[in-house]
Amino acid sequence: MRLIGMLDSPYVRRVAISMKTMGLAFAHEPLSVFRDFDAFGAINPIVKAPTLVTDDGTVLIDSTLILDYLERIVPAERRLLPDDPAAFLASQRAIGLALAACEKTVQIVYETNLRPAEKQHQPWLDRVQGQLLAAYDLLETACAGVASTGRLMQADITAAVAWRFTGSKLPDVAPPARYPALAALSARAEATAEFAALPLD
Questions:
Q1: How confident is the model over 37-46, as pLDDT tens digits?
Q2: Domain count, the chain
Q3: What secondary structure does DSSP assign to 45-109, as a single string?
């Protein structure tokens, strides 16, 4: 399989780390949706990261849909989502919160880095930042008291990837002192072989 996209995207990184954790072989092709638009478009005309090209040549987009597929092709013991309905529900909630934090971080980065300063709308930025912090407040509560040992599951991977991404792009927005459980999860995850092999670019 081929995974297309840069690791500075939290969506690409969560898929790459998940694949490595699942023990799935893949070739990572770090194409940028900006700098490598034409090359990326030759693989996927939508030019959306991540893009996964499966062994039979099927092109999949959207990190969650890609991971849904991968969950179905690995043995049960290598899956990253729990089978128990209550545990699955808690996992899905945490994943949703982490992905919301990613989305809001991306919106702020695009607004402040790509839109000219005179066209930026501060009330909208304030609103998005409020949504970002609300997502992390809820995710911190979900992570607090959770055992920090054992195999990383999808909720752990996604939360850790999101936290590292926000910290890298918006270091002053979500201070670690406000989110000690998330900071601890991130530190533990980044120290694993899977995360270390696929660092944030």
A1: 999 999 999 9
A2: 2
A3: TT--SSEEE-TT--EEESHHHHHHHHHHHS-GGG-SS-SSHHHHHHHHHHHHHHHHHHHHHHHHH
